[in-house]
Specification:
mainly beta; 5-stranded mixed β-barrel; 3 helices
Length: about 375
């Protein structure tokens, strides 16, 4: 497809550096309020980085009578750090990327993931983990000054926190470039990006979000109308429900292939740890729904406002309601990283259980210095033109 004299291949060659733009999230949290940084280590060794999120969901019994459902942003590795929890993995952990088979090496800081873990020996071990992009497709509009994109009718906000390198990387994106966006939605449906990856155009597009209207012929997510004719529908969508849609762009129009209900964990879940933004209703003391589940019990932290970022911890009942034990306000620090190579650490490997192989003794950890005011930056090498 030719657009403005540029072919899809030309756009890819121009963007051969394939940067990944990771957005600083801290500005969405009121700076006047006390917040915490999700860091994999802290002084007391509990791995929660001072978040105040307790690993009460971890039981030493490992009885398999109910797992922990997790939805949140990857903030670190070693184990996989999500919502302040250290999630272990093994060669049996099933990994998917938007429903397609993947591996642990596909994981990146800033991605939103959903998984189920079970306790064993005082730790949480992942059974399943899915990378869930909020939207993936061509950019139809871009506002460099405002720091926003539009992808498949979804408004995407990039909070760069005044970072110069991130801003310059953002400015290399152009209309019709194909990107995969990781992030959660604000109260108005805007996606607050935690990671944006420019990718090769393979024709596949996806979007996750609330179906604001549904008829027999189409449904609407954000500003995207999804025709339902000749579409494989695994679960009939309802207005207000969360849906996953995959499809392709044909003749400049979106054509859906699959429409499915989104939300709900794979396997039996008793406990949950969910990252979300405070909705307008919740801020007023009304009903609050997170990932299709109604939150009851614990109240919001003092001073919490619309679009504050929180982690909800609690027990999931049979009626799909969360009896929350805590709602913790967080401030997440995410870095800017190059897309290729840098986020595949050698230690992110499952334990294949080879007793004959002797591992070297672990080195004592050096004290970590947390500097939440400025993200770490790794810029792509060479010129991108």
């Amino acid at each position: 497809m030719m657009t403005g004299g540029r072919t899809t291949t030309g756009r890819w060659l121009r963007g051969v550096s394939a940067f990944a733009l990771l957005c600083l999230l801290s500005a969405c949290v009121d700076a006047r309020l006390n917040t915490a940084v999700l860091d994999p280590r802290n002084g007391n060794g509990d791995g929660l980085g001072g978040t105040g999120i307790k690993q009460a969901v971890v039981s030493p019994r490992g009885d398999g009578l109910g797992g922990t459902g997790i939805l949140g942003t990857i903030t670190g590795f070693g184990s996989i750090i999500v919502n302040g929890l250290e999630l272990e993995f093994s060669h049996t952990t099933l990994v998917e990327d938007d429903g397609k088979p993947a591996s642990l090496e596909h994981l990146r800081v800033g991605q939103v993931v959903e998984g189920v873990a079970h306790p064993r020996d005082g730790k949480l071990y992942l059974d399943t983990l899915e990378i869930q992009h909020a939207v993936s497709g061509p950019i139809s509009a871009i506002d460099y000054a405002g720091g926003t994109l539009t992808v498949l009718g979804q408004k995407v906000r990039l909070n760069l926190g005044g970072d110069k390198a991130g801003t310059e990387s953002f400015k290399t994106l152009q209309k019709d470039d194909v990107v995969s966006v990781s992030g959660l939605r604000l109260a108005d449906g805007t996606i607050m990006a935690t990671r944006v990856d420019q990718r090769r155009d393979d024709g596949r597009t996806i979007v996750r979000g609330e179906a604001t209207s549904v008829s027999t012929t189409n449904l609407r997510i954000g500003d995207l109308d999804v025709p339902l004719r000749d579409v494989v529908t695994t679960t009939p969508p309802k207005a207000g429900s969360r849906v996953f849609v995959s499809g392709r762009i044909l003749n400049n129009a979106f054509v859906a292939d699959v429409v499915a209900a989104s939300g709900g964990f794979v396997g039996e879940v008793k406990e949950v740890s969910l990252e979300a933004y405070v909705s307008a209703e919740a801020a007023k003391g009304g009903v609050w729904t997170v990932n299709g589940m109604t939150v009851t019990g614990a109240s919001l932290p003092a001073g919490a406002a619309v679009n504050d970022r929180v982690v909800v911890t609690g027990r999931l009942g049979a009626d799909n309601k969360i009896a929350a034990t805590s709602v913790t306000k967080i401030k997440t620090v995410v870095s800017l990283m190059q897309a290729r190579g840098t986020m595949r650490p050698a230690w992110l490997r499952p334990d294949m259980g080879r007793p004959e192989r002797v591992r070297p003794p672990e080195r004592p950890e050096r004290p970590q210095t947390v500097r939440p005011e400025r993200p770490q930056i790794e810029r792509p090498q060479g010129n991108c033109c």
